[in-house]
Amino acid sequence: MTALSRIPKSSDNVALRPLQAQDAQAAAEVIRAAFAAQRMATRSRSSALGETRETVAAKIEAGGGFGVFAGEKLAAVALWRLDDSVFLVSRVGVLPQPRGQGIAGMLFASRDAEARRRGVNRMRSRARLNLPENERVFARFGFQRARVEAHEGFDLPTTAVMEKTLR
Asked: Is 57 helix (H, G, I), strand (E, B) or coil?
């Protein structure tokens, strides 16, 4: 059974925990499914759609991540790593079925707690400009647009760089 199997409703057993190497396959499936469910295609293909067990395992090893499990099934993930005293957040994804049930909030709260635990007060992530709802999610959890950037090969901006200072 894969992570894409039926996810229990929020009334079922929901737990958040750090991702481990053995979660990499399920995490890659959640990331691909969550990013594929975006309302429109991005101007440059999202590299999240190419995540594999190996690439996710390497990201967990290089930094870490959190997963929200509904029952035994992974429903959401967020990966992170430290870079020059900045907590870089990537691959925040919630499967389509359980969206709107507070799962993203669990991921954001856990990530904030981990950054504080490590003594880091600056966070950064990226959101595609043509998916403004993603930028709004980050803003809801305290991020602000710091600047825009263009993906390699693009003349116009494609991405909002979102930053947050923990207090």
From this structure: helix
Instruction: Tally the C-alpha atoms within 13 A of residue 13's C-alpha that lie toward its C-beta.
Output: 3
Give me the percent of the chain exceeding a pLDDT of 90: 51
Structural domain containing residue 144: 14-165
Number of domains in the chain: 1
**pLDDT of 116 higher than 70:** yes
Contact predicate 19/64, CB 8 Å: yes
DSSP string covering 114-156: HHHHTT--EEEEEEETT-HHHHHHHHHTT-EEEEEE--TT-SS
Q: In what order do the strands lie in the sheet with 64-70?
A: 14-18, 64-70, 73-83, 86-94, 122-128, 159-165, 144-149
- 123 has pLDDT over 80: yes
Q: What is the pLDDT of residue 97?
A: 79
Does a structural domain hold residue 8? no
For the chain, the distance separating the N- and C-terminal CA atoms, rounded to the nearest angstrom, is 41
